[in-house]
Specification:
Layout (H helix, E strand, L loop, with lengths): L2 H14 L2 H8 L3 H15 L4 E2 L6 E2 L1 H28 L3 E6 L4 H13 L4 E6 L1 H9 L5 E5 L7 E9 L8 E2 L16 E3 L6 H13 L7 E3 L3 H10 L3 E5 H6 L3 E6 L4 E8 L2 H8 L3 H8 L24
Parallel strand pairs: 3-4, 3-5, 7-11, 8-9, 8-10
Antiparallel strand pairs: 1-2, 5-12, 6-10, 6-11, 6-12
Helix pairs in contact: 1-2, 1-3, 1-4, 2-3, 5-11
């Protein structure tokens, strides 16, 4: 027996003094209301209504049981409301600010198809870590070394003009003795201003003979992209970003630079949703891969997929 449904019929009939009106108020046929109340009476072992006259009257036992029945019905309704609110609870996730807006929108749509009410909050790597630490978001896509990453994004250098070779050799960026030409800088955007990316590139630049100022961190991704679009400077970025900014892209000959990302969340269910059902959609936002763990979007040097002449 469905005790809640039976109590709902009991409360409705007692409130209207009629099986017909009470059943209509409960949204069920009169015959169903009668069966449910009869089953409840059998369950309790006592009559709830006096049916000796045309009017429906509560017995003394029914009067004693009515408050409990009302509490059960009210509690059930409150639980249903709470469940609906919980189901619609937004999962706020801090994501890299370099993710294209359209791909983030596609991620939100994909999440809703899976009954996940996702809200994304773009931020830099340090800010994402802080938001997760202070629980201002339910989860975050955080920067980690590529070796321990769930998603990996190969990085290269992008410029407004095509590259003459299938890879960029840092030695070619050294200034000549005459110093008649400004040295081309490598611009690190804030997303890549993390030790496991910045430090290897800085060391490689020093080993190649670049001046310290030739490897520099830009104040914002907009400033970094603007410099690459408006000068000979090079932008350290993913191929997805290079395509977004209409820049030519090539991998670096030397250190293998990869963004690494993993997900953190305060609730295990949220963590599983981000790591499983939304894995491929997050990968597309990051420009990481086709959604297979460990795979990358890297192409061999000179691959026509880069769109640049070799």
């Amino acid at each position: 027996m469905d005790v809640v449904a039976a109590c709902r019929a009991f409360v409705a009939v007692s409130g209207h003094g009629s099986f017909t009106s009470g059943a209509a108020a409960a949204g069920i046929p009169q015959s169903v209301a009668s069966r449910r109340i009869a089953a409840l009476e059998e369950y309790f072992g006592a009559r709830l209504f006096d049916r000796s006259s045309r009017a429906v009257r509560l017995t003394s036992f029914g009067q004693d049981m009515l408050p409990s029945a009302r509490r059960l019905v009210d509690l059930t309704d409150a639980m249903v409301d709470d469940a609906e609110r919980a189901r619609l609870r937004p999962l706020r996730v801090a994501v890299p600010e370099i993710c294209p807006t359209r791909r983030l929108a596609d991620l939100v749509v994909a999440a809703r198809r899976q009954q996940v009410q996702l809200e994304v909050r773009p931020a830099g790597p340090q800010e994402r870590a802080r938001l997760c630490r202070t629980l201002e978001v339910g989860g975050g896509i955080v920067a980690v070394p590529a070796a321990s990453a769930a998603w990996r994004v190969p990085l290269g250098l992008a410029a407004r003009t095509p590259f003459p070779a299938p890879a960029v050799f840092l030695e070619t960026l050294r200034g000549g003795r005459a110093r008649t030409q400004a040295r081309r800088r490598i611009l690190i955007q804030p997303e890549d201003d993390v030790a496991h990316l910045r430090d290897p590139l800085t060391r490689a630049g020093q080993a190649a003979g670049l001046a310290p100022a030739q490897v520099t961190v830009a104040s914002s991704v907009v400033d970094a992209a603007a410099a690459a679009l408006g000068s000979p400077d090079l932008l350290l970025c993913s191929r997805q970003q290079a395509e977004e900014y209409d820049l030519h892209w090539r991998p670096v000959a030397g250190p293998r630079l990869q963004r690494g990302y993993d997900v953190v969340a305060g609730v295990r269910e949220d963590l599983d949703q981000l790591r499983t059902i939304l894995y491929a959609d997050i990968a597309r936002c990051l420009g990481a891969s086709d959604g297979h763990s460990g795979a990358t979007d890297a192409s061999p040097p000179g691959n026509p997929a880069t769109g640049d002449p070799t």
